[in-house]
Amino acid sequence: MILKILLVFPLFLLEFITSTEYDSDVNQQQYNLINNPKIFNIGAILSESKHIQTFINGIQDAKNKSLPNDLELRSKAFEMSQNPIHTARDVCDELISSEVYAVIVSHPKHGKQSPTSVSFTCGFYNIPGN
Questions:
Q1: 32 and 44 fall within a common domain
Q2: Is 129 inside any structural domain?
Q3: By percentage, how much of the chain surpasses pLDDT 70?
Q4: Is the pTM for the entire model greater than 0.85?
């Protein structure tokens, strides 16, 4: 009799643990659906100021045409400095503080150091950059 109970108890315990984990997963999924962000900030570091307005218009078009009503896209853009240290500082001051979800980087007019500093800075904060 005792041997029979000992053999059945682990199966009962295993079933209880897996059902508890399942309920926990369902609760976590429901929590995530309720608490998903509704506002997404997209940053851009562009080589020329004339591209900034194009970027802002593109974000507005995507927001107006492609997204459900309860989601919002916001743009944050500035012109890239030729100095990579200034560009990295600008990323921290302008984009990181705005809690951006992604960063778009254009090719610079001269040199290639500034996009590299943006990439390293965004990578440090786990922000996708392209």
A1: no
A2: no
A3: 73
A4: no
Q: Is the pLDDT of residue 51 over 60?
A: yes
Whether residue 58 is found in the same domain as residue 9 = no
Q: Which helix (H) or strand (E) holds 19?
A: helix 2-34
What's residue 42's pLDDT?
93
Count CA atoms closer than 13 A to 49's CA, side-chain side: 0
Domain that holds residue 62: 39-124
Q: Is residue 16 part of a domain?
A: yes
A 10 A CB-CB count for 58 gives 15
Q: Are residues 6 and 20 in the same domain?
A: yes
Phi first, then psi: give them for residue 44, nearest 5 degrees. -145, 135
Q: What is the mean pLDDT of the chain?
A: 77
Query: Looking at residue 107, which CATH number applies to its domain?
Result: 3.40.50.2300
SS3 content of the chain, % helix, strand, coil (to 5): 60, 20, 20
